[in-house]
């Protein structure tokens, strides 16, 4: 004979109304599942909150550490400015260094040799204008960087080099004639280099090389020689011709003025009986 299945508590035969205990068991199971779900959500929320706090803490620590570090590249030096003690006398070298955030500030200087061209227009011994461009290779003395920053500033090259170059060039070029600037070129260049190097040393600068722009210098000197010869020829002509050359120039100027007036559409009234055009004789 087949065995009848064992009835469990709460089982209800089909076709019969549910027993009172079965609904209670189903409600209890749903309540347990909901409680587990809520508990898992609370655990996940607490985990995310912990991760957020940890990330915020790491970000704050990273920001503080990053603000307390600074890098000095190759060929550079740093001077520290302290808000309470001023510019520090210690010069820091290449690499990564520490400082006090929001209290100290690093000022980075380029200590490599850098070129600079300084154009100068000056007069020679014979009063001829000479246009010379001086090319300079300069760098600061590393031990004097605090003094340079305190007394001159970060843009020391813009403030110092044009001034001292103009001063030295005018002093040296004024000792030579326009022709001597060509024939004694090496002497002029050496004298400029020595005087400028000595002058730059007082500001804490080292000049590795000083050279004149040869082509521009020779061209301006040749032009100055031409102006000198032209002035000499005019003086000789005046000495020979007397006032005749002056009157000739007046006539040429008057002719040019009359030509310009004839081309103008406006009506120009000239007073009669007067020497209007450069006081020419009637």
Automatic annotation (TrEMBL):
It is found in: Mitochondrion inner membrane. This is Prohibitin. Keywords: DNA synthesis, Membrane, Mitochondrion, Mitochondrion inner membrane. One of its GO terms (cellular component) is mitochondrial inner membrane. The gene is Phb. PANTHER family: PROHIBITIN (PTHR23222), PROHIBITIN 1 (PTHR23222:SF0). The keyword Membrane applies. Residues 68-229 form the Band domain. Belongs to the prohibitin family. It comes from Polypterus senegalus. It comes from the Eukaryota. In the plasma membrane, cooperates with CD86 to mediate CD86-signaling in B lymphocytes that regulates the level of IgG1 produced through the activation of distal signaling intermediates. Upon CD40 engagement, required to activate NF-kappa-B signaling pathway via phospholipase C and protein kinase C activation. SMART domains: PHB. Pfam families: Band_7 (PF01145). The keyword Transferase does not apply. Residues 1-24 are annotated as: Disordered. One of its GO terms (biological process) is DNA biosynthetic process.
